[in-house]
Amino acid sequence: MTVLGARDLNRATLARQYLLDRTTTPVKEAVAHLCGLQAQEPQEPFTGLWSRLYAFTPDRLDRALTDRQVVRTHLMRRTVHLVTDDDALAWRARHDTMLRQRVLATYRRELADVDLDELAAAGRAVMADRRPRTMAELVDAVQGGRPGPPRRALGELLVAGLVPMAQLPPRGLWQTKGGVRNLPLATWLGRDVAPLPDGGDERHGGDRGHEDPVGQQLVRRYLAAYGPAATADIRAWSGVAGLPAAVRALRDELVTFRDERGRVLLDLPDAPRPSPDTPAPVRFLPAFDNAILGYQDRGRIIDDAHLGLSVAGLRAVLVDGRVAATWTTDGRRLLVAPLRSLSAPEQEAVREEGHDLAVFLDRGIDRVDITAVRAAIG
Asked: Positive or negative, the Cα torsion across 339, 18, 222, 6?
């Protein structure tokens, strides 16, 4: 079996994440290909798309949000993601069990006595008037002044685990501040969430992958955007436990490799796997970027010593395809903090891309400063 080194995997990831060459793909199609963008920080997807799409301007994502072509919703890993309308409706039911379990695990004691079916029905009844509500307003309406579980726990269970919700604009629009107002996905998008066929949910044992078309689609789509990858990577990305059966159902149409740790990697036969010698341009990534967080083993793109930055909300800079610096803004400066020594040509490339990013951000930034090498972020 062919062994793929870290650099082979790195170039495959960059190619599929549109980080080797920017693409002219429209916003909705790009978001679909990427299987969504993590978006709990509302402004971050703009930088993620700018780094991937040729001549991207913020109004393109704004229009996609207001036209309801893309939507902000809880999905993979119980994190707010920016996904297409079609994927939100097709994938939500496949994530339902995981979403509930993760909320219940966080608030195990506080929610121990809650009747989930009764609470879900109450939440749907409140939202049936089609009026957007904040989480606090929804909790108030459901509780009706009666004592109950802590409001935060109850609210998160409702909006993330029980009633599929969209977070409405202006939340997520360019340089716009707006609190979270929720509306059921089906109301906002004008279509129902697709139900799962029997056997498609991990509650049915996870051994009927041939009856799990949604799970199979998730596997194919993940590999198209992130592969080659191990089953552990697929689970880490999605948060869903019941996909091995879908993988088994697809094995005849997939190709396999091994990584340098000996793990079996799965891939689509015709997906791009560029030469490890392919040049990789400098790219500025937003906080919580797909290319870093989409794996259980992130060694293809980031050193172990710096894994902490991927979950701490720090923005990363790719140099030769790997995380080599973090970046932030400070007044009129864009600050780049290297994680290793950068050569003179690398520094020049970082400054050039940084100046282009500063123009995109449109905040009056006129300097790109590279600071001293910072300590490990493990």
From this structure: negative
